[in-house]
Sequence to fold (368 residues):
Amino acid sequence: MPEKNGLESYMKEILSVVIPTYNEKDNITTLITEVHKALSGCDHEIIIVDDNSQDGTIDIVNKLAKQFPVKLFVRRDEKGLSTAVIHGIKQASGSTIAVMDADLQHPPEILPKLYKAIQDGADMAIASRYIKGGGCPNWGLFRRVTSKGALMIAHIFLPSSRRVKDPVSGFFMFRPEKVDLLKLKPVGYKIALEIMIVGSFKNIVEVPFIFKERSTGQSKLRPQQQIEYLSHILSLMSRTGEFWRFVKFIAVGLCGTGVNEGVLALVRTFTAWHGTIQLIPGIEVSIITNFILNDFFTFADRRSGKIGSFFGRLLKYNLFAAAGALINWGIAALLFNNAGLDIYVANIIGIIVAFLWNYFFSTIWAWK
Ligand code: GDD
Ligand code: MN
Fold:
C-alpha cells in the first residue's frame, strides 16, 4: 500500500465501463446486472452509448438507470462501433476506462481481473483470446481464419501491435491520461488497436478470456467491416510512419530489379554459360544490394550498429530472399504451365507474392 498523503479523497478511483449498443434488447438487462455484480467491490459507472436502436433497448436502459449506476447516451445522427466507444470515453469520469460489448460475448467476470492488472501497475489491460487460457471455442473455420488473418495483418504492418497477442480484441481497460482522445481516428471495429497504437502505454498486460457464443440478437460484423479494417490499418500505418516504410521497401525492390537485369546483361556479355546459370549472379547480387538499401534506408530505425548483427541480418535476408526468388519462379511457372496465364502476368503474380513474403520476413525476422 502506498503511504497516505491526504489526497486520497480527491483521487477517488472510479471505473467507467463503456458499452456500445445497437439493438441489444435481449442482452442488456443481464449484461448490466452482471457488470454491476462483478464490480460490486469498487466504485463504477456504466456508460451506454446507443445509436438509436429501434428494438426497445433505449427504454430498457432508461429503466435500468433507476436501479443501477448507468448513464445513457443516444446518438441519433452518427453510427458506428468505434466512434460510439470514443463518445462514451469522452463522457466518462473514471480514472480507468473499460470497453466491452453488450452481447455477453465478453464475460463480465473478467472485469475484476482486468482492473486488478491496472491496479497492479498496467496502464492498459486487454482481455485476450490468444494467450493460454483464452479462446473462441464456438467459432467456425471461416470466422477463425478471418480473425487470425486480421491479427496477422496487424502484427505484420504495425510492429507496435506485436506487444500483445490479441490487439484486435474488443474487450479492454486503460488509463485515459495515456491517450490524446483528439488523435483517435478509428474506422470500423478495432478500437483497442487504435487506442493502443495512438496512446503512450508503457505496460500492457493481457488477461485470458473465452469469447462466448452470442446468446441472442445478431452480430453486426459484415464484409463492410473487413474492408473498413483494412482502411483502418492503412490509416494507422500512415500515422505511425509504417506506410512510408512499405513504400521504401517497394522502391528498394524496384532498384533491385534494375540491378538484377543489369548484372544479367553483364554476365551474358562476358560468359557463354547456359541461360539458367546466367540468371543466378543477378539474383544474388540484387539480394545483397536490396539488403544493404533496406538496412540503411527502409529499416534504419530498427538496425543495430554492431557488425556481427549486420552479418546476421544479411544471412537471414539472404535465406528468405533466395526462397522468395524460388517462390516467384515456382508460382510464375505454375500459373504459366498449368493455368495457361500469360507469362508476364504469371510473373507479376509471382513477384507480388515473393515481395510480400520478403516483407513479412524482413519485418518479423531480419529487422524485428
Ligand atoms: N453504438 C453502436 N453503434 N454499437 C454498435 C454498433 C454501432 O454501429 N455496431 C455494433 N455495436 C455494438 C453491439 O451492440 C455490441 O454490443 C458490440 O458493439 C459488438 O458488436 P457485434 O456485432 O456483436 O460484434 P462482433 O461480436 O462481431 O465483434 C466483436 O468481436 C470482435 C473480435 O472478433 C467486437 O468486440 C469487435 O470489436 C472484436 O474485434
Ligand atoms: Mn458480438
